[in-house]
Amino acid sequence: GAVVSQHPSRVICKSGTSVKIECRSLDFQATTMFWYRQFPKKSLMLMATSNEGSKATYEQGVEKDKFLINHASLTLSTLTVTSAHPEDSSFYICSASLRGDTQYFGPGTRLTVL
Amino acid sequence: GQQVMQIPQYQHVQEGEDFTTYCNSSTTLSNIQWYKQRPGGHPVFLIQLVKSGEVKKQKRLTFQFGEAKKNSSLHITATQTTDVGTYFCAGPNAGNNRKLIWGLGTSLAVNP
Asked: Does the beta carbon of A28 lie under 8 angstroms from any beta carbon of chain B?
């Protein structure tokens, strides 16, 4: 149990385009999902908490208009990187809580912006 | 603000040697969690410790939670190449306990 999928696994896009990343909880319902960003050989940086049916809560310094989060159902949250630039290139990982605060992670999406 | 510190940042060991990573929180935690991230992979939940002084074992891995519930350790006995990866500890955010505060991780390299 507690399987989280993420799509796409890799994406390469041109500067200025938008990219949508999907995060799905496959065998459980997740009222809360989390979006992280991870730079090479670095720790996880929490970007935002995605709440089903309500607005996401963004961490300090994360632009909500740049990183749009939608959590329309109990099994799906999406992160859209709008007008992507090379500095947005990173590893984006989502996670979901099955119970309590233990988190189960998706496999991640490696974004490269040219 | 609330912080979780982890040492060492990197550790290289010879296969068969033991390895320990330490985690220290600036605040008392209701629980501490450990995750492992293989190179190129995503974090995978290993274990959660809840009780003061708790010790749990998973095969060659031994996890401890300090008496004051502010520190924890992960000890691997007789490392193998399959142990390679980054080990993260994390504790609940005091203001929102569904969020986790993450340590910076300890990257373990094992020479065969």
From this structure: no
Query: Which of the 8 DSSP states describes residue A27?
Result: S
Q: What does the DSSP 8-state code read for residue A87? A: G
Name the one residue in this structure whose structure tokens are 């007789």: B78
Both tokens of B1, joined, read 């603000």
Residue B84 near residue B39, CB atoms below 8 Å = yes
**In chain A, % of residues over pLDDT 90:** 75
A100's tokens: 């309590």
Chain A residue at shortest CA distance from B30: A101
The DSSP symbol for A88 reads: G
Nearest partner of B14 among B79, B75, B84, B85, judged by Cα: B79
Largest CA distance in chain B: 44
- The share of chain A scoring above pLDDT 70, in percent, equals 99
Cβ-Cβ contacts under 8 Å, B96 against chain A: 49
pLDDT(A99) > 80? no
Contact assignment for B99 to A43 by CB distance below 8 Å: no
